[in-house]
Design goal:
This protein has three helices and ten strands; from the N terminus they run E-H-H-E-E-E-E-E-E-E-E-H-E. It has 303 residues and is α+β, with helices and mostly antiparallel strands.
């Protein structure tokens, strides 16, 4: 998945597959958030379910991809919750992810814990709010939100009987030298405890990516536009290897095609090997350390 940064020690069986889903739009105002985060079933979602079912019946699964580095901004102890925004402003994004067993005909993996984390609209991560995102951006403290600087835009969801998890968040901004992305881990064998997820092992560490044209249309909007500088496109990113959906590229579809601010909805199928283990820690290189380096986090998230 990472081009020159791939972990070649991971076999195709001991990797995670990503089948592209569909993402559609919702709004920055309250009504827009309701539209973006609604639980309505779309045609594309039904199509994704049908595709997964067909794969399961045929005994085959999606194209596999290798794990990548977890990057410099990972923190233990993220909270189990659906909405991870904590009041951070940005274009709404709902992610619906389905975890399946790629070694067993794409059968669902109930109880799998999907963990995501990403930067805010100006490129700042919780726990690392003084790390320079590159270019010119206001200080993270100027965003006016009530977000907890140790926990925002981080969280777990535990898969239901169909292997499905759902997150409500915002489209990430960017930081030098990385393109727009979301970090992802899939855990199995643990359990929810004291508001977080404990035990088990990490089966996969990866990243999700956004189409350049869509990302740039979002970055022209407030509050993203307050961060100026050189945005790294997909072709120049140190992690994305050009493989499309199999490399984590989300398929995005706006509900309101003429208004990017209305948000997006995303569907992705994640095919894992439950026997595999890859934390992404210590992989080197592919995390995208910002120009000033990543300082020690202000604090680990509390449960």
């Amino acid at each position: 998945m990472t081009g020159n940064h791939k972990n070649t020690s991971i076999t195709r069986r001991r990797a995670l597959a990503v089948a592209g889903g569909t993402v559609a739009a919702g709004g920055l105002a309250a009504a827009g958030y309701q539209a973006a985060f609604a639980d309505t079933t779309t045609t594309t979602a039904a199509t994704a379910t049908t595709t997964a079912g067909s794969s399961a019946s045929s005994g085959t699964c999606m194209e596999l991809m290798s794990s990548v580095t977890e990057g410099p901004y990972y923190l233990d102890g993220a909270l189990v919750r659906k909405n991870i925004t904590e009041g951070k402003s940005g274009v709404p994004l709902t992610l619906r992810l389905t975890v399946v067993d790629a070694t067993d005909g794409c059968t669902p993996v109930p109880g799998a814990a999907v963990e995501i984390w990403h930067c805010d609209a100006w490129g700042y991560y919780s726990g690392y709010t003084t790390a320079n995102p590159g270019g010119s951006a206001p200080a993270e403290s100027e965003d006016g939100s009530t977000a907890n600087d140790k926990t925002y835009l981080r969280g777990y969801q535990v898969a239901n009987a169909n292997g499905v998890v759902k997150f409500e968040t915002i489209v990430p901004g960017w930081y030098t030298p990385r393109t727009c992305h979301i970090h992802l881990k899939v855990h199995t064998g643990g359990a929810k405890e004291d508001g977080t997820y404990e035990g088990g092992k990490v089966n996969f560490t990866g990243q999700l990516f956004f189409d350049d044209e869509i990302a740039e249309s979002i970055f022209a909007l407030e509050p993203y536009s307050k961060h100026s500088g050189s945005y790294t496109k997909l072709a120049d990113d140190m992690v994305y290897d050009g493989g499309g959906a199999s490399s984590g590229l989300l398929t995005l579809e706006a509900v309101h095609k003429k208004d990017a601010s209305k948000g997006y909805r995303g569907f992705l199928t994640l095919g894992i090997d439950p026997d595999a283990e890859n934390t992404g820690a210590g992989s080197g290189g592919g995390g995208g350390t910002p120009p000033s380096g990543a300082p020690a986090p202000s604090s680990s998230p509390s449960s």
